């Protein structure tokens, strides 16, 4: 095992990483708004659970299609990545603000599609920046901080959003959130990466789509992320409604408890991201460390099934929080694995396809949960399905993905 001391992150790297994490936080804060206001929107527009699930799915359909078509990856590679992320951020925040002004259900669906298009460039941009600017022994923590931001945002959004929606209604909440978060663009334009790290990619160094699609690890990583996303998006889109509908929590009480599982994912992700980096620094195999963390985190998430089986509300929240903390162990490793295998020149395009494929779970999970709920009148089977799919994801990461090392693409 190596005893050398790698360099620490520079001030510039920390600044970029914190701004990326802030954009990821606001990205998911925008997403959780619909979940927080779901029961209010459902009552106002007189829609079924299946239609509510379809409203959630509209965002993910646009988000996934833009990525799996390689459109997002192409844009991230073809143009300055800093400006691509800035324009994407502008589009998605404006879509959130406009939603609060609309009174036609069909228009709200269209705005959810626009939100998905804007946010589709975020993860390909993050991967390209991190793969180009951060060494392997920093990527676990760097990705964990970004992922922690995406998990703490639903925690904050559920707590603050639930209280604000209960007091002021859902429309002012949407408008204020979208308009207010535009301020992020000011520091980003000042500190975003410049020069070779952000410039358009040299096309001769970027592998073809076919070369990426021929990689076995890409397909199993995509399947593993799909399974993980099903678990995550099921909770993100339906947990507030579950607590209100089945546990009969009034909205303020829902807000005070629903944020805890999301916070648990964030904290566990940061701790496991830091721990995995330290093990790799000390010379342990990247493959062993990353796969162990990912496998344990996904397999242990099966505990979520018990949430729908316990009668006590306190026991249910405690069980869900523990299950989510275990899931956080996996969450810190996802894009660190992808960036290591794809390398700096393929990471944007690879992430675009893999994240697009995996986010079809965002279409399936909300819609299927609504269908199951309308058919059975209870959430048990929805929790059961989420837990079993998580176990399948663990198998895909551990046994399907190959060695965690950069692919040598043929020219």
Short description:
77% of the residues lie in helices and 0% in strands. The protein has helices spanning 11-36, 38-45, 49-68, 71-78, 81-99, 105-119, 122-133, 136-168, 170-180, 185-191, 209-213, 216-245, 251-281, 286-300, 313-331, 334-342, 347-358, 360-376, 380-400.
Describe this structure in words.
The chain has 411 residues and is mainly α. It has a single domain, classed as MFS general substrate transporter like domains (Growth Hormone, Chain: A, Up-down Bundle), CATH 1.20.1250.20. The protein contains 19 helices and no strands. Helix 5 (81-99) runs antiparallel to helix 9, helix 12 (216-245) packs antiparallel against helix 13 (251-281) and helix 12 runs antiparallel to helix 19. Residues 1-5 have low confidence and may be disordered.
């Amino acid at each position: 095992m190596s005893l050398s001391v790698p360099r620490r992150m520079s001030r510039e790297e920390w600044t970029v990483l914190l701004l990326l994490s802030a954009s990821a936080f606001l990205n998911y804060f925008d997403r959780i708004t619909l979940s927080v206001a779901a029961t209010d929107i459902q009552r106002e527009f007189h829609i079924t659970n299946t239609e509510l699930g379809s409203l959630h799915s509209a965002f993910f359909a646009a988000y996934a299609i833009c990525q799996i078509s390689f459109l997002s990856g192409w844009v991230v590679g073809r143009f300055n990545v800093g400006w691509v992320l800035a324009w994407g951020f502008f589009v998605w925040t404006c879509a959130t603000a406009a939603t609060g002004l609309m009174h036609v259900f069909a228009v709200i669906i269209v705005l959810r599609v626009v939100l998905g298009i804007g946010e589709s460039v975020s993860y390909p941009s993050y991967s390209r920046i991190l793969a180009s600017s951060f060494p392997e022994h920093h990527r676990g923590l760097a990705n964990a901080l970004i992922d922690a931001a995406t998990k703490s945002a639903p925690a904050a959004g559920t707590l603050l959003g639930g209280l604000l929606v209960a007091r002021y209604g859902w429309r002012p909440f949407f408008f204020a959130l979208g308009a207010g978060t535009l301020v992020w663009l000011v520091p980003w334009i000042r500190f975003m990466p410049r020069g070779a790290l952000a410039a358009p990619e040299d096309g001769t160094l970027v592998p073809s789509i076919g070369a990426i699609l021929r990689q076995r690890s890409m397909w199993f990583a995509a399947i593993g992320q799909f399974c993980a996303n099903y678990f995550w998006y099921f909770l993100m889109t339906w947990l507030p409604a579950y607590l209100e509908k089945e546990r009969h929590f009034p909205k303020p009480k829902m807000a005070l408890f629903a944020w805890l599982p999301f916070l648990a994912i964030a904290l566990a992700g940061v701790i496991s991201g830091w721990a995995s980096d330290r093990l790799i620094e000390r010379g342990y195999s990247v493959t062993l460390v990353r796969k162990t963390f990912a496998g344990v985190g996904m397999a242990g998430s099966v505990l979520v099934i018990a949430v729908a089986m316990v009668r006590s509300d306190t026991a249910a929240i405690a069980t869900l929080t523990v299950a989510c903390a275990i899931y956080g162990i996996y969450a810190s490793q996802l894009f660190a694995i992808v960036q290591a295998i794809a390398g700096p020149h393929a990471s944007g395009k690879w992430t675009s396809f893999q994240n697009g494929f995996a986010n079809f779970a965002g279409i399936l999970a909300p819609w299927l949960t609504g269908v199951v709920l309308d058919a059975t009148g209870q959430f048990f089977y929805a929790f059961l399905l989420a837990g079993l799919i998580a176990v399948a994801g663990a198998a895909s990461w551990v046994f399907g993905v190959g060695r965690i090392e950069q692919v040598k693409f043929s020219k």
